[in-house]
Amino acid sequence: MCAKGGGATLAESPRHEGRAVAPLLNLLTHLALKTFLFYTVAIMNNAIITVVGTDQVGIIAGVSALLAEEKINIADISQTILSGNFVMMMMVDLSSSLISVDELRKSLNQLGEKMHVEINIMHERVFSAMQRV
Question: Taking the model in full, what pTM does it have?
Fold first, then answer.
């Protein structure tokens, strides 16, 4: 019995013999699986973009504009200047984009040539696997 309400606890309930708990366990299992799949898909839709070159006006704007045109969200960004060289790393979310990573790579390479910087893209799975080696 519960101290406050005087009713039976779940463990003391006659319905606890699997009938009342089974639907709850099924629901929790279903929700856990959906959550796992959501995060797995989210991870699979990320990519790392790196940009390296001589510092100049408009590098971030140029790369960001290209990504925005393709409906690619910038999830995280870090940039610095090292000995006069511009260095940027972006984590991007590809889930809303219809462009493939290979097509995006070609567009980024063209932009890099135009801006005289080196732009690379790597799927997050590849990046993560390389970090484990």
Answer: 0.64
CB 75 within 8 A of CB 97: no
The candidate with the shortest Cα–Cα distance to 92, out of 113, 61, 68, 62, is 68
Contact 78, 89 (CB under 8 A): yes
Q: In this predicted model, what pLDDT tens digit does every residue of 66-122 receive, in sequence order?
A: 999 999 999 999 999 998 899 999 999 999 999 999 999 999 999 999 999 999 999
Q: Which residues pair with 49 in a beta bridge?
A: 90, 121
Residue 36 corresponds to which tokens in the numbers above? Answer: 């796992």
Rounded CA-CA distance 38/97 in Å is 17
Q: CA 64 from chain center: how many Å?
A: 17
- Element housing 111 (H / E): helix 101-115
SS3 of 46, please?
strand
- Spatial contact of 47 and 92, defined as CB atoms under 8 Å apart: yes
Asked whether 72 and 92 are in contact (CB, 8 A), the reply is yes
